[in-house]
Design goal:
The structure holds three protein chains of three kinds.
Chain A (H helix, E strand, L loop, with lengths): L4 H19 L4 H35 L5 H19 L25 H19 L1 H12 L5 H16 L2 H6 L14 H36 L12
Chain B lengths: L1 H5 L3 H18 L9 H11 L6 E7 L2 H20 L3 E6 L4 H16 L9 E6 L4 H9 L1 H4 L26 E6 L5 H9 L7 E6 L4 H4 L9 E4 H16 L10 H32 L4
Parallel strand pairs in B: 1-2, 1-4, 2-3, 4-5, 5-6
Chain C lengths: L2 H29 L7 E10 L5 E10 L1 H9 L4 E3 L1 H18 L7 H35 L1 H7 L15 H11 L11 H28 L9 E2 L2 E2 L1 H21 L7 H44 L14 H9 L1
Antiparallel strand pairs in C: 1-2, 1-3, 4-5
Helix pairs in contact in C: 1-3, 3-4, 3-9, 4-5, 6-7, 8-9
The chains are: A mainly alpha, B alpha/beta, C mainly alpha.
């Protein structure tokens, strides 16, 4: 009862309010309240995420599992950023309230949190994602094979897009006229056409498929048919 | 030759990519750009606005995508400021507000010093909740943002007068790195008031093809990846450019040079990779 | 890969970082003196309180090296700031640590990765607390206390919103997930979150991604323009309309893909392959832009080899040869 029925009813009630409010505007205030609560809970999820990380890495360190030294670094980074942020270290007060240091802007330039962002968080995350440029190049060399018609279509489109979206496209098909039927085959124009027609068609079909899938899964959950989100146990 | 290519160490490919991207940056080449219709539509949507019109500037990205999106964010803010629009900054990504602060410092305070905080632009900051935030903003913006990012109650901010929901804005200008982003703005904001709100977006390359089905009905224009950014910059500079234009406003244009060599390298790699494949097939190895 | 080569790779990675730093130091000493220096403009804030005591602090605003030097020449308060210069060098070194992974997994990369994991989790936690928990929950529940501590601008007449006790209770229940014995109680708030999410998604996906997609797909297959039959538009519309339908047929698994259905489904696959090819092209475009962004950071902000933003002195040989090449 407590572990399955109540949460299921809670999910149903919350979801049905959201849906009914669409059809009955009278329910809009209730929908707005529910959304406010939902958004607050999303913030708690951030805190939960941090708590989970703490738990996992503390365990790893206490068990002296392989790589525990790196877990120590993770924990040190976690605790320092948390302290810098929550205690607003290095934050200047607002001019209107010089005595209330905790009222200062924790993101303001020069604050401890700003330092963390500018010199640790931003360079690290940006570089991690930029590495994909190298791996995509390596993968393209090894895995992209024109084995059949489907693969040739995929490769051909990729070539047109890659060249057509840079100055190379203009250069390569500069011999074609700028007006008239043949102009459509200039790479830069061909790219636009591919994006507006076949790519839009393909993505639209995918979009419709996902939309119907999402709607049916949502409905299953709200009607209590799918209860997998509740996990096991009674 | 065949053996060499077949057994090519991936570090060689990494080095080629590094050189292809680094050299044009070091040589500081900036190829010319011509705007495509989808970017021109985005530009014209903003151009059609009048002084004092309200734009909702949603910075939904992070440093990991700033290489593609920062030029769009800068160009959007510059354009809106040139047009003397009222800018309402928000962010659905936790790191987004940092870009709002940068835009304020680098664009507004430097080049538009007459703009007053609270009258010409306001920073509503970040809120958790992803599409929940959009849904609430679509219905009741004040319930989501009781204060701005600086803790000032909404009622004390002059430019918030008469603003109750997303319908009160002329255009949403969204810079998006993924979820939540442009797709959710279409689904929750535009869908709630298709006749009242227009959406202009700049997005990463990964998202771009997925967003094309929304154009032009649900989304007035789209800046797709760095190429879109460069095109938009060329339009903004074409209309509002001055002499000695700061390099900050040409970041996207500048980036099209490494883009060119990188793309050619990719095409070359795929081509050579296939050559190896067909040679292997001929030799009966594949 | 043998153990020995893996260790060899690790050494290469560490070596890359060390060589990079050595070159940067040499560059900052010999070729671009002071490369990587960060300047700020300083503003003193002094407030005299009622009891006669003073509160003072210095506000630093980043300025480019060029601007900073101009300001200093005009006797304005601008100077290099040691802490930010160290920060920038740290950021550059962390960037190299991540890049070192290209030559193989190594301790420097692992350490940088460990920092990302810890710092991001704490970063989001702090933001969740200050930007949603405080203004949207605490300010509503305890307006007086919040005004006195964190948000002095909060209106004096702000009243307690007792309905916020509900999300407060749900928040506490959600956090109990971390407690082993009564963790199950977090199912209640989780169910609430899932319910709201499904409700939101149900309407939005049908409205924006289904119904709104049908209209723009119903287009004339034969387009008549001012000069009669318009071949280009007709062909485009045929591709768009029939392409969408063919892909949908391919996704439709209730009917066996044989005969006519099979043929249509197969053309749907072709359309999808074109779609994926374009997606691949755009993905590559994005990745390269990100890499270019990082390189620009290293070459411009750190090493001063280039100066696209007109921010600092740069007399690099590359800049002298560039005009000859372009």
């Amino acid at each position: 009862m407590m572990k399955r029925t109540i949460p299921m009813l809670l999910a149903m009630a919350a979801g049905i309010v959201m849906i009914l409010a669409y059809f009955f505007p009278l329910l809009a205030p209730l929908q707005d309240k529910t959304t406010v609560w939902f958004n607050i809970l999303a913030a708690v999820a951030f805190i939960l995420g941090g708590g989970n990380l703490l738990k996992v890495h503390l365990k790893k360190v206490s068990d002296r599992r392989e790589g525990w030294a790196y877990s120590m670094i993770t924990l040190a980074a976690f605790v320092s950023v948390l302290a810098i942020g929550l205690f607003k270290l290095g934050v200047n007060p607002l001019d209107e309230f010089p005595t209330q240091r905790m009222a200062g802007d924790f993101r303001a330039e020069g604050s401890g949190f700003w330092y963390v962002y500018e010199y640790v968080f931003a360079p690290l995350t940006a570089t991690i994602f930029s590495m994909l440029a190298f791996y995509v190049a390596s993968a393209a060399f090894r895995a992209f094979r024109a084995k059949n018609l489907e693969a040739i279509l995929l490769l051909g489109t990729a070539f047109v897009i890659l060249l057509g979206r840079t100055a190379a496209g203009v250069f390569l098909t500069d011999f074609l006229p700028e007006e008239g039927m043949l102009a459509n085959f200039r790479l830069e124009n061909l790219t636009v056409w591919i994006m507006n027609n076949p790519v839009t068609a393909g993505n639209r079909a995918i979009m419709i498929g996902i939309a119907l899938g999402t709607a049916s899964v949502s409905l299953k959950i709200l009607l209590g048919v799918d209860r997998s989100y509740l996990g096991g146990g009674d | 030759m065949y053996e060499f290519l077949r057994d090519l160490d991936r570090r060689v490919i990494f080095s080629l990519m590094a050189v292809a991207v680094a050299v044009p940056i070091l040589l500081q080449i900036t190829p010319p750009e011509k705007a495509t219709p989808i970017v021109r539509d985005a530009f014209e949507t903003i151009e059609a606005l009048e002084e004092g019109d309200k734009v909702y500037m949603a910075f939904d990205f992070d440093p990991a995508s700033a290489g593609e999106l920062q030029p769009m964010a800068t160009a959007f803010v510059r354009h809106a400021s040139e047009k003397k629009l009222k800018i309402y900054f928000t962010a659905l990504w936790p790191v987004g507000p940092q870009f709002i602060k940068n835009a304020e410092r680098d664009v507004i305070k430097r080049d538009f010093p007459n703009m007053v905080y609270g009258e010409d632009y306001v920073d509503l900051g970040f809120k958790t909740g992803n599409e929940g935030v959009i849904k609430l903003v679509a219905n009741d913006l004040r319930a989501q943002y009781p204060q701005d990012a600086r803790g000032t109650p909404i009622d004390d901010i002059p430019m918030m007068e008469g603003v109750g929901s997303i319908r009160d804005f002329e255009v949403i200008m969204n810079v998006s790195a993924g979820y939540p982003g442009t797709k959710e703005w279409v689904q929750y904001a535009v869908a709630s008031a298709p006749d009242d709100v227009k959406l202009v977006a700049g997005c990463t390359g990964v998202q771009a093809p997925l967003l094309y089905p929304y154009y032009p009905q649900q989304m007035s224009g789209l800046l797709a990846a760095i190429k879109g950014a460069a095109e938009y910059e060329s339009l903004v500079l074409g209309k509002y450019g001055r002499e000695n234009e700061p390099g900050m406003y040409q970041e996207g244009l500048r980036r099209m040079a490494p883009q060119l060599s990188g793309h050619i390298l990719m095409v070359g790699l795929i081509f050579v990779g296939n050559l190896v494949y067909f040679m292997a097939r001929k030799r009966g190895e594949a | 890969m043998t153990h020995a080569t893996r260790r060899g790779n690790a050494n290469f990675g560490v070596l890359l970082v060390l060589i990079g730093v050595a070159i940067a130091v040499l560059n900052a000493v010999a070729f671009h003196p002071g490369a990587g220096t960060q300047w700020t403009k300083r503003t003193e804030h002094v407030h005299t309180l009622e009891d006669g005591s003073e509160v003072r602090w210095t506000e630093h605003e980043a300025v480019s090296v060029k601007e900073g030097r101009e300001m200093a020449a005009l006797e304005e308060d601008a100077a290099p700031l040691f802490a930010r210069t160290v920060g920038l060098w740290g950021a550059a070194i962390l960037t190299l640590c991540i890049f070192s992974f290209l030559l193989g997994d190594n301790p420097l990369y692992k350490a940088a990765e460990a920092i990302v994991v810890g710092a991001s989790a704490a970063y989001w936690m702090v933001i969740g607390f200050w930007e949603t928990m405080v203004p949207n929950l605490l300010a509503g529940l305890f307006p007086g206390w919040t005004r006195d501590t964190f948000m002095p601008k909060l209106a004096l007449e702000a009243e307690t919103d007792y309905l916020l006790l509900i999300p407060l209770a749900l928040s506490v229940l959600l956090l109990l997930r971390l407690a082993p014995k009564i963790g199950w109680i977090s199912r209640w708030p989780t169910a609430f979150i899932i319910g709201v999410f499904c409700g939101l998604r149900f309407i939005s996906s049908l409205e924006a991604d289904f119904l709104s997609q049908i209209g723009p797909t119903i287009k004339p297959l034969i387009v008549m323009g001012e000069n009669g039959f318009d071949l280009e538009s007709s062909f485009s519309n045929i591709v768009l309309v029939l392409g969408t339908l063919a892909c949908l047929v391919y996704f439709f698994f209730s009917v066996e893909h044989k005969g006519a259905v099979g043929k249509v489904a197969r053309s749907g696959i072709w359309m999808l392959m074109i779609t994926f090819g374009a997606a691949f092209g755009y993905t590559v475009m994005g990745r390269i832009a990100l890499l270019a962004g990082r390189f620009e950071f290293l070459f411009d902000d750190w090493l001063w080899l280039i100066d696209p933003k007109d921010a600092h002195p740069a007399q690099a040989f590359l800049q002298t040869i560039a005009p000859m090449l372009t």
